[in-house]
Amino acid sequence: MDLDSGTSSTVGARVQAIPGRPAQHGALYQFKQQNLPACKPVLTPATVIATFLLMGFIFIPLGLITLRASNSVVEIVDRYDIECIPEELRSNKLLYITDDSISKNCSRFLKVPKSMRAPIYIYYQLDNYYQNHRRYVKSRNDKQLLHGLGDNSTSSCKPLESSGDLPIVPCGLIAWSVFNDTFKFSSGSSELKVNRKNIAWKSDRNHKFGKDVYPFNFQNGPLIGGGKLDPNTPLSDQEDLIVWMRTAALPSFRKLYGRIEEDLDADDVIVVQLMNNYNAYSFGGKKKLVLSTSSWLGGKNDFFGVASLFIGTFCMMISIVFLLLHVKNPRPYGDAMYTSWNKKSSSS
């Protein structure tokens, strides 16, 4: 380490010695003039090789640990949007989803590959759904969600700010398109109860959705979007709406539907009775049902583990290459040619 302090004091003394210029003191002035003492690390081959080795020893075990945690998560993914359409209507999906006279009931059978320990999280996944579209994201009114009809500035909710000359609560495209597929689960002869409480963020329930705000004039227009809301339940208790209103950043996303608080054994068969109500066919979307356990790291995601292994392996390879180069062509401290040239230049 090189402590750059003597030079700083010399430069500071020269600055203060300039005639007609007021003396400058204090750390702030020295900081602005870059005259503070500084530690300058000397990057020798040994320190560079040791640094890369240390990074490899840190990131490789970290990647193995996180990958093991991710692989311990048991996940079942079932795409049901196509399989739940009668075969005679699969060539005309829009007719199926828009015709209310056609039954939307569907049964799916899921086999548990490994034992799943409670809680088992239930997600619905949508693909090719751009919740991050600028027009869609802006089509909401946060003050109305918190204060209800007391806030009349609903211009941001266009084109769904009112219906029949009456305001809509909650207004906007996000609330209008709320997901409305429903799921019921059973295993053997017993029904699996789904806990749908506390699926939304606590901060959203307490600070973004009013406890005295109730749906009003919602889904009463000629164009019906997603699901309907209970007009007798305040928005702060309609957690499926709160989860949906937190828009996703990517076109493929999952949102929490509920939790199964029972253990499931390997090779168990789960019967899912679902209502295929949500229209994802008009824009080429996909709908999937996901059952997943969790680990101390969260859900199943191999990215962090793979990235850590890649970084650690890369650092180890770089350190080995640098070590071989240093052994083959060592660079002595203080090159004789450089020191002799430096002495001649200083003497002249």
TrEMBL record:
<dbReference type="InterPro" id="IPR005045">
    <property type="entry name" value="CDC50/LEM3_fam"/>
</dbReference>
<feature type="transmembrane region" description="Helical">
    <location>
        <begin position="42"/>
        <end position="65"/>
    </location>
</feature>
<keyword id="KW-0472">Membrane</keyword>
<dbReference type="GO" id="GO:0005794">
    <property type="term" value="C:Golgi apparatus"/>
</dbReference>
<dbReference type="Pfam" id="PF03381">
    <property type="entry name" value="CDC50"/>
</dbReference>
<keyword id="KW-1133">Transmembrane helix</keyword>
<dbReference type="GO" id="GO:0005783">
    <property type="term" value="C:endoplasmic reticulum"/>
</dbReference>
<feature type="transmembrane region" description="Helical">
    <location>
        <begin position="303"/>
        <end position="325"/>
    </location>
</feature>
<keyword id="KW-0812">Transmembrane</keyword>
<comment type="similarity">
    <text>Belongs to the CDC50/LEM3 family.</text>
</comment>
<protein>
    <recommendedName>
        <fullName>ALA-interacting subunit</fullName>
    </recommendedName>
</protein>
<dbReference type="GO" id="GO:0005886">
    <property type="term" value="C:plasma membrane"/>
</dbReference>
